[in-house]
Amino acid sequence: MRTSRRLELSAALFALAAVVAGCAPGQDKSLQGSLTARLSASRPAGGAEGRAGGADDPLSRLLAVNVSFSGVEARGRDGGWVPVQNGLPVSVDLLALANVGDTVTLPGDLLPEGQYSALQVRINQVDLTALDGRHVTIAPEGRGWLVLVPVDFTVDLDRATIVGLDVHLDQSIKFHDGVFEFDPDVDVDGIERGQVSN
Asked: Residue 67 belongs to what H/E stretch?
C-alpha cells in the first residue's frame, strides 16, 4: 500500500510540475507583444541611375537584387534566441527599395515581453538581374548568410515593436573578376512602437 501511495504522490507532483511549466512567462500567450522588422536599402548617391561609382559600381550593372530572407531571431536577456517565424521566407528586391527610397515590412510575430539585445537575420539566396536580362544566383556556403545586428529594444505586453533595418547595397554587392559576390552589411534604422493590431 505504501508503494502505491508513493506512486500516486509522484504522479500528482509530476502533473503539478507540468501545469506550472505550461504557465511559464515565456510560453504564456497573454504575456507577449509583437516584433516586426522593416527593411530599407541604401546605395551611393546617384539614385536610380546608379552611376555614383562609375563603371566599377556593381549596382550600375544590375536591374534587380532579390534577397530571400528565411528567418529572423531575437536575442533575449538570457542570451537565448527567440525565432520570429511568421510568414517567412520572403523575397525582397532591395535595389528597387533603394531606387525609390521605400521600405518593406517583414511579417511580424508574437514574442515574450522583455528586453532584447540583438536581431539575427538569415538569408538563404540572392538572385540578381543584370542590365542585359541575364539572371545570376548567388548561393551561400552552408545553410545561408547569418547577419548579427546588435540592437537594444523592448517587447511590451500588447505593444508592437518595429525595428528598422537598412541594407547597404554598395557594401553588400561586390563584383570581382567577372563574378558577383554578396556579403550583407546591415545597420539599424530606428525603432518604432505602436499598438498590436487585432
From this structure: strand 62-76
Smallest CA-to-CA distance from 92 within 164, 40, 145 is with 40
- Residue 14 CB neighbour total at 10 angstroms: 10
For residue 120, tell me if it sits in a domain. Answer: yes
How many structural domains does the chain have? 1
Output phi, psi for 78, to 5 deg: -80, 0
User: Contact 60/40 with Cβ under 8 angstroms?
Assistant: no
In terms of Cα–Cα distance, which of 136, 140, 135, 137 is closest to 124? 140
**If phi over 0 gives left and psi between -120 and 50 gives alpha, with beta otherwise, what is residue 19?**
alpha
Vertex 90: Cα angle to 49 and 114 (nearest 5) = 110
Which has the higher per-residue pLDDT, 108 or 16?
A: 108
**Domain limits for position 97:** 31-195
18-63: pLDDT as tens digits: 333 333 334 455 679 999 999 999 998 654 444 444 557 899 999 9
pLDDT higher than 60, residue 17: no
